[in-house]
Write a structure and sequence with these properties.
The complex is a heterodimer of chains A (113) and B (111). Helices cover 0% and strands 55% of the residues of chain A. Chain A is built from no helices and 11 strands. Chain A starts with a strand and ends with a strand. Chain B has 111 residues and is mostly beta strands. In chain B, the strands form 2 sheets. Chain B has a 5-stranded antiparallel β-sheet with strand order 1-3-8-7-6, with no helix packed on it. In chain B, strands 2-10-9-4-5 form a 5-stranded mixed β-sheet, with no helix packed on it. Chain B has strands spanning 3-6, 11-14, 19-26, 32-38, 45-51, 56-59, 62-67, 72-77, 86-93, 105-110. Classes of the chains: A mainly beta (113), B mainly beta (111). The interface between A and B is medium-sized, with 21 and 20 residues.
Chain lengths: 113, 111
């Protein structure tokens, strides 16, 4: 199956700093990638849809100025959490579509102190 | 509004038995439905996709059914093993739509 990687797998940062998370499709090109957030014991919630070469589409309630998404190439999308606060601590997961199937990265655990 | 319901209670079964997980959806007309497995602290892993014109699909010990009249999908794991213990997520989807997940059902297979 198709492989999606994320980096880093975990990150701890101080409140007020920015954190960048990378998502790569390793063996296929993805014009569309997705960013999800998952809180403990909850399901994945879609944050935004990232389209290569254009602006991301954000879900209702997700601040686009806080969660900056860049999809500069067909294999790389980045999510930057700006001025992170403890309430942003969560598990962030990206995914990429290949046909009708959607493949997920291993996730990034963000802890904001 | 669109809603996806999975058993919120954990499913505990004995090794070797068949596990059956349920996914019900409302206000949806999905063209297909996907099932994923998620282990703690990991991203979901794709298992099976079944289309609206398919009643049933199998892959090794897994079987999925899709009833568009009942608006329900059943996910079966036969000859279950402790290694099958995980959370299973269903995601009905219309073509071109974003992928939205149910809350997931946690399966625990005891030896």
């Amino acid at each position: 199956g198709a492989v999606v990687s994320q980096h880093p797998s975990w990150v701890i940062c101080k409140s007020g700093t920015s954190v960048k998370i990378e998502c790569r499709s390793l063996d296929f090109q993805a014009t569309t990638m997705f960013w999800y957030r998952q809180f403990p014991k909850q399901s994945l919630m879609l944050m935004a849809t990232s389209n290569e070469g254009s602006k991301a589409t954000y879900e209702q309630g997700v601040e686009k100025d806080k969660f900056l998404i860049n999809h500069a190439s067909l294999t790389l999308s980045t999510l930057t959490v700006t001025s992170a606060h403890p309430e942003d601590s969560s598990f962030y997961i990206c995914s990429a579509s290949l046909g009708d199937e959607q493949f997920f990265g291993p996730g990034t655990r963000l802890t904001v102190l | 509004s669109q809603k996806i319901e999975q058993n919120s209670e954990a499913l505990n079964i004995q090794e070797g038995k068949t596990a059956t997980l349920t996914c019900n959806y409302t206000n949806y007309s999905p063209a297909y439905l996907q099932w994923y497995r998620q282990d703690p602290g990991r991203g979901p892993v794709f298992l099976l996709l079944i289309r609206e014109n398919e009643k049933e699909k199998r892959k090794e010990r897994l079987k999925v059914t899709f009833d568009t009249t009942l608006k329900q999908s059943l996910f079966h794991i036969t000859a279950s093993q402790p290694a099958d213990s995980a959370t299973y997520l269903c995601a009905p989807r219309s073509s071109g739509d974003k992928l939205t997940f149910g809350t997931g059902t946690r399966l625990a297979v005891r030896p």
